[in-house]
Every structure is written in C-alpha cells, then in structure tokens.
Automatic annotation (TrEMBL):
Gamma-L-glutamyl-L-cysteine binds at R95, A96, D97, R98, D425, R429. This is Hercynine oxygenase. InterPro entries: CTDL_fold (IPR016187), DinB-like (IPR024775), DinB/YfiT-like (IPR034660), EgtB (IPR017806), EgtB_Actinobacteria (IPR032890), Sulfatase_Mod_Factor_Kinase (IPR051043), SUMF_dom (IPR005532), SUMF_sf (IPR042095). Fe cation binds at H61, H147, H151. Residues 24-155 form the DinB-like domain. Keywords: Iron, Metal-binding, Monooxygenase, Oxidoreductase. Residues 181-440 form the Sulfatase-modifying factor enzyme-like domain. It catalyses: gamma-L-glutamyl-L-cysteine + hercynine + O2 = gamma-L-glutamyl-hercynylcysteine S-oxide + H2O. It comes from Nocardia aurantiaca.
Length: 447
C-alpha cells in the first residue's frame, strides 16, 4: 500500500517545520542578546584576546551572514547593507585585525541584526521550504541558526577570556547520578558514519558511508580534572619524552604548565577561573581548555591514545541491537536537559555520571555536551563529499593543520550538535571548551 499525502497534511507539515525554524532562530537570537547586553559599549568594541573578534564584530557578522543567505539568496530581496559585506567576511580579515576596521558601533549593529531578522520572518513566511536544495526541509534557515549558535559559543569563549567582574551566571552543572569509570570495548565491525537523512546536517557530515572499525576500547567518560592533575603532579609538563616533537616545542614556546585558566595558590591547591570567578578545581568534572598537544601528552603518559574520529562516532552512534547508527548516543530524539549538558544552561561541564540517560547502548557516557572531545584525526572530506552550499564552509579547511573535535560542549546549542557533527581547530588551540577521552587497541588476549 502506498500512503497518499493530501495537500492538507503537507501544509500542516510545512507549518510545523516553520515553527521549528522560528524556534531555532529565536533561541539563537535570545542567546546572542544575552551575551552582548551584559557588558557595556566599551567592552563590546574591545578585543579581549587576539584570538577573538570584538563581540560587536560577531554580532554584526551574525546579521550579515543571515542577510546574505536568507534575505538575498533564499528571499531574493534587496540588500539591507551591501556596503558592509567586506567588513564581516571572515576570510578577508583575520580576527586580530578586526578591531581596526570601521565596524558598525554597538547601536548600529543591533539595529542592523534586528532589521535583517524582521525581513527573515517575512522570507520564512513566504518560502515553500522545498523545491531546491538550499531551502529543502528548511536547510538554509537551519544553517543560519547553527551559524549564530556557533558564534554564540565563540562569544562565550570570549567571555571566558575577558578579565574583570563576572557578568554571566547560571546554576552549577549537576553532580554524579551514577558511578562511571573504566573503559567500554566495542567489537570489530562496520558501521555507518555520517548522514544522508539529517536535514540540517552540514556538508562535511555527508554522505553516510560504511566504515570498518577494528575492535577497540574507549573510556566510558571524558578525562577528569582529578585524572589530569595526576599527570601534572607526575611532572607531565616537564617530561619531553611524553610529548611529540611539535607538542613539546609548543609547550616550551607557550610556557604551558597546566590547562588554561588553572591557578595554584600558595598552599598548593588548584583553582579554576570560570567566567570571572575563582572556583576550587572540581575533581570529577571533565578537564576543559586543553589543546590537542596536551591531550596527546596525557595519552602517552597514560599508555593510551586519542580515539580516531570513526571510533568516536561509532561509540556515539552504533546500536548493536539493530546495527544502525543513531542520531545521538541515547537514540534519535532531540537532546534535553536530562540527556546532555548543552545550550549554556550551565557555565561548566558536569561531573562524570551526571547524565546516565544520555549514555550509549554500550555504556559510553557524556559523549554529547560538557566538553568538545579532541580526536586523533585530521579534518578530511568523507568519500563522495560535495561542497554545499559554498566551498568556504568546509572544503577549504580539508587537509589543513586541524584536528577534529566531537560531541559539543556545555556552550554548544543542540541545533549545532549531533552524533555526526564535526568541529575542527588547530592543535594548539585551547580557548575553546575542549577536553578529551582516551582509547586503545585491544591486546591479543582481549580479542
Ligand atoms: Fe561565521
């Protein structure tokens, strides 16, 4: 029997999709406003770190990308501010150079993003949300909501870097609900990596393709502050033999002695600066703000290694009962506060064991949320990759000096976090909310 869709049910489906798009755009904008209204004008235009843009640049850039894709491209409308396109093109100006540009001031930037968004509501109302790849299932709208949320996470990292009084607040992340430790073994076999079916998945997550993964063991949880501190206390930062040649050169040149934002008091106790407040190191919280080279050195010290990207995704998505790949470790339903620490509901990772309902079928915990997890893998195209909707989204980064991070952090919104979602950064970067877990090959007696 074939199911006939009536025009009425199609209309209802399209209206539901419009509602989902409006929710995603609205949630992103509320967050953007929250991150830019809590500091004064001087702080908005100031550069808090050479690694970051002034917050006012991110703000207007969010509006500019929304104008380019949704107002002009999808909507076919007249430009709002074509004259400023070049100022907000991330490829034309490095972050360090952005403060010197003749940027919109905070009031102008707010007006601009507001007038773009007003036009977008009209475009959304009139778009059929089908008929070409760009609007099919609301893709372009989903892409723009993800883009805004990714910049919100970047702005959150800028807030972590700024000095001065705390301006953000949120309840502490939850403690453990169950005890989680040790490793989980995943047997050898093929699984489907990437996706063809997630409508808002970006080009680099596509297409779905089979990947053979040898048997491996992966940590049931990310490495904690307590575990990482044992590496620090064991002289991890002084022992060149634990580091790769590049990693050691960076360790020395950058003067690394502990994760970023860690401070030791005269009594030998460790503290962490978290968005302007000093907090005692939380022992069972995943370590955050470590670079790839630090993760690599820790892995050498522990006699293990970082998981490959395929291993990470298999641990996060493979369902041994059905053999299919899920959207998330817990299944196909969207994340919620019971399943994962996402969406800036907290300003820190949660303790290990805080999200038992979010674990994978094999018992791997906290793959989604808390901290971005470094993998061993460089950023490469999947077989059959097709750049969409533009080469600059992913393709120009393939093969560069990047490592892939997976799983999202407490500062990532669910619209920009899936079992297939790929993030990438230079191996020296640690202002991002990055941590890691370890993996290893099985010994012959374990196979
Ligand atoms: Fe951007």
């Amino acid at each position: 029997m074939t199911i006939q869709h009536s025009p009425g049910s199609d209309r209802a489906e399209t209206e539901r999709l419009r509602g989902r798009i409006a929710d995603a755009l609205d949630r992103a904008r509320r967050r953007t406003i929250g991150l830019t209204e809590c500091v004064d004008e001087a702080e908005l235009v100031e550069q808090h770190s050479r690694l970051m843009s002034p917050l006012v640049w991110d703000l207007a850039h969010i509006g500019n990308q929304e104008e380019l894709w949704l107002v002009r491209d999808v909507g076919g409308r007249e430009p709002v501010r074509q004259d400023i396109d070049h100022l907000y093109d991330a490829f034309q100006h490095a972050r360090a150079d952005r403060p010197a540009l003749p940027l919109l001031d905070p009031a102008q930037a707010r007006d601009y993003v507001g007038s773009v968004r007003d036009k977008v509501w009209d475009v959304l109302e009139h778009s059929p949300l089908r008929g070409n790849d760009l609007v099919q299932d609301g893709f372009a709208f989903g892409m723009i909501a993800q883009h805004e949320q990714q910049h919100d996470e970047t702005m959150l990292a800028t807030h972590q870097l700024r000095s001065g009084e705390a301006v953000l607040s949120a309840p502490p992340a939850p403690g453990a609900r169950v005890a989680v430790s040790g490793e989980v073994v995943l047997p050898a076999g093929e699984f489907i990596m990437g996706t063809d079916s997630d409508p808002w998945a970006l080009d680099n997550e596509r297409p779905a393709h089979p990947v053979w993964v040898d048997a491996f063991a992966i940590d049931a949880a990310p490495i904690t502050n307590e575990q990482y501190l044992a590496f620090v206390d064991d002289g991890g930062y002084e022992r060149a033999e634990l580091w790769s040649e590049r990693g050691w050169a960076h360790r020395v040149a950058a003067g690394l002695t502990a994760p970023q934002f860690w401070e030791q008091d005269s009594g030998g106790h460790w503290w962490r600066r978290v968005f302007g407040t000093m907090q005692p190191l939380r022992a069972h919280q995943p370590v955050v703000h470590v670079c790839w080279f630090e993760a690599e050195a820790y892995a050498n010290w522990a006699g293990k290694r970082l998981p490959t990207e395929a291993e990470w995704e298999k641990a996060a998505r493979f369902d041994p009962a059905t053999g299919r790949s899920r959207r998330y470790p817990w299944g196909d339903i969207d994340p919620s506060e019971a399943l994962a620490n996402l969406g800036q509901h907290h300003l820190e990772p949660a303790d290990i064991g805080a999200y038992p309902a979010g674990a994978s079928p094999a018992g791997v915990h906290q793959l989604i949320g808390d901290v971005w997890e470094w993998t061993a893998s460089g950023f490469e195209a999947y077989p059959g990759f097709r750049a969409f909707p533009y080469r600059e989204y992913s393709e120009v980064f393939f093969g560069g000096d990047y490592r892939v991070l997976r799983g999202g952090s407490f500062g990532a919104d669910q619209v920009a976090c899936r079992g297939t979602f790929r993030n990438w950064d230079h191996p020296i970067r640690r202002q991002i909310f990055s941590g890691f877990r370890l993996a290893r090959d099985l010994r012959s007696d374990e196979r």
